[in-house]
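RECORD TYPE: inverse folding
INPUT: structure tokens
STRUCTURE:
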């Protein structure tokens, strides 16, 4: 004889609800499997020491915490960008103090975390009150750098959320930056590391997230290969993103705390019903008084606040490029000046008085100048090598080298650069050329003669001297570099 047992799920649910009311064990059972819940992941990326909006971020975070279970995470590049933070009495510490106070819980490394080298970063990690995850960084010699876990799993409102971390390593086998910053560290393949991390953590979590500081092009390559992530918190390319790649949600909040990323997860028990990502602009929030007082204190340095000159015309990126390239050319008595896009840290310079902090912020790396005699053919090779560098797709196939002299890059239909035309330079002639130290020391394809390193003055000192002695300063927003397709 065969028995058929029929289960009335409504009665089961009613019974569990009754048990939930009567016993702690029953409530836990109901909450785990049947209760609907909402959890929020708040995210930032590429803060770059821009603390002015931190009080608004604090207000947004506290409002979220008042209404729903949430966790606060960051996708790297917390410092390098403001003299008030980077040149503080305890360098770079102010941004970590603010993040600790607000209650960040998980973060990964950006390339600029390594700007001051392995030992500085190792010591700074002792100041963090939040977890760092990064699947593809390790000490070259055991004991010289803390072990960084590939991932962590956090219980947020009853949901287990796994966070893996990964940082770009596509420039000479390490993140973008000066070689010295990465000495003593190794950066295994980012894609292999991320894939291994998610496969290990996914069986133990309800939602799997990757905090990536690789940039959107490499993020896309990763997600086309690895499909196990539900969410990617992205960074590095300073874009405002809210979309999907191969079934994975992807979000990025531009830079400098322009916005906060909001990932909303709805679940019944531990069954995920829906995940949504959106960016929320922080300009719409009032400033939290406590955090505003902290920021005001950090920015109270009278030396940095001193006005040193006046800028005559509001400058955009191209005007700032003209300022950078022309001033290093002028200071070294050169005939041509080159500056790289990534070294221009201001997004604009208003027509107004200019403070010492603003001058320093324009080249927060405190770069130096090299001069080298180059022919147009040698300049052409340098520009073509950079443009066609498929190993670093975040910084290739774009105008990356601004110059005092106009030039045009000629590409084919596949966007491969074939030629560079210099309308004002004479082929075969050598020109004394000023180049910022990052380009000279890190770019490939640089050839020439009579190279000379200028230890002094530094580039911020060159800028400072010019504004002190030549205000109102006048530069041009004219676009001098172009790309055409043949």
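DESIGNED SEQUENCE:
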């Amino acid at each position: 004889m065969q028995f058929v047992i029929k289960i009335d799920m409504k009665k089961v649910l009613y019974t569990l609800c009754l048990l939930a009311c009567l016993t702690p064990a029953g409530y836990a059972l109901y909450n785990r499997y049947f209760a609907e819940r909402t959890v929020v992941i708040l995210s930032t990326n590429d803060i770059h020491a821009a603390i002015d909006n931190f009080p608004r971020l604090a207000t947004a975070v506290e409002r979220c915490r008042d209404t729903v279970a949430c966790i606060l995470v960051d996708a790297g590049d917390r410092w390098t960008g403001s003299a008030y933070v980077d040149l503080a009495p305890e360098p770079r510490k102010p941004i970590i103090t603010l993040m600790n106070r607000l209650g960040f819980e998980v973060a990964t490394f950006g390339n600029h975390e390594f700007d001051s080298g392995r030992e500085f970063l190792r010591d700074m990690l002792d100041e963090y009150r939040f977890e760092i995850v990064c699947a593809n960084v390790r000490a070259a010699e055991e004991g010289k750098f803390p072990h960084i876990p590939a991932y962590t799993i956090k219980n947020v409102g009853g949901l287990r959320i796994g966070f893996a971390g990964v940082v770009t390593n596509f420039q000479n086998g390490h993140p973008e930056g000066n070689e010295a910053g990465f000495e003593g560290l190794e950066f295994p393949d980012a894609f292999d590391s991320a894939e291994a991390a998610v496969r290990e953590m996914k069986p133990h979590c309800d939602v799997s997230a990757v905090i990536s500081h690789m940039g959107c092009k490499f993020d896309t390559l990763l997600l086309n290969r690895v499909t196990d992530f539900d969410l990617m918190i992205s960074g590095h390319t300073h874009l405002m993103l809210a979309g999907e790649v191969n079934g994975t949600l992807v979000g990025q909040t531009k830079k400098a705390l322009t916005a906060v990323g909001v990932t909303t997860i709805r679940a019944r028990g531990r069954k995920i019903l829906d995940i949504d990502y959106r960016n929320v602009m922080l300009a719409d929030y009032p400033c939290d008084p406590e955090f505003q007082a902290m920021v005001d204190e950090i920015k109270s340095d009278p030396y940095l606040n001193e006005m040193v000159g006046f800028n005559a015309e509001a400058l955009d990126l191209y005007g700032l490029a003209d300022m950078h390239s022309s001033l290093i050319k002028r200071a070294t008595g050169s005939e041509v000046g080159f500056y790289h896009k990534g070294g221009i840290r201001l997004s604009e310079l208003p027509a107004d008085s200019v403070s010492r902090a603003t001058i320093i912020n324009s080249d927060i790396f405190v770069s130096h100048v090299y001069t080298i005699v180059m022919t147009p053919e040698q300049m052409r090779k340098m520009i073509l090598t950079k443009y066609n560098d498929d190993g670093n797709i975040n910084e290739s196939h774009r105008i990356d080298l601004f110059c005092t002299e106009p030039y045009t890059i000629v590409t084919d239909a596949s966007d491969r650069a074939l030629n560079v035309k210099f309308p004002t330079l004479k082929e075969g002639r050598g020109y004394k050329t000023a180049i910022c130290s990052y380009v000279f020391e890190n770019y490939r394809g640089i050839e020439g003669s009579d190279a000379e390193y200028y230890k002094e003055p530094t580039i911020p000192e060159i800028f400072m001297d010019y504004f002190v002695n030549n205000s109102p300063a006048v530069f041009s927003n004219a676009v001098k570099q172009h790309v055409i397709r043949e």
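NOTES: The mean pLDDT is 93.
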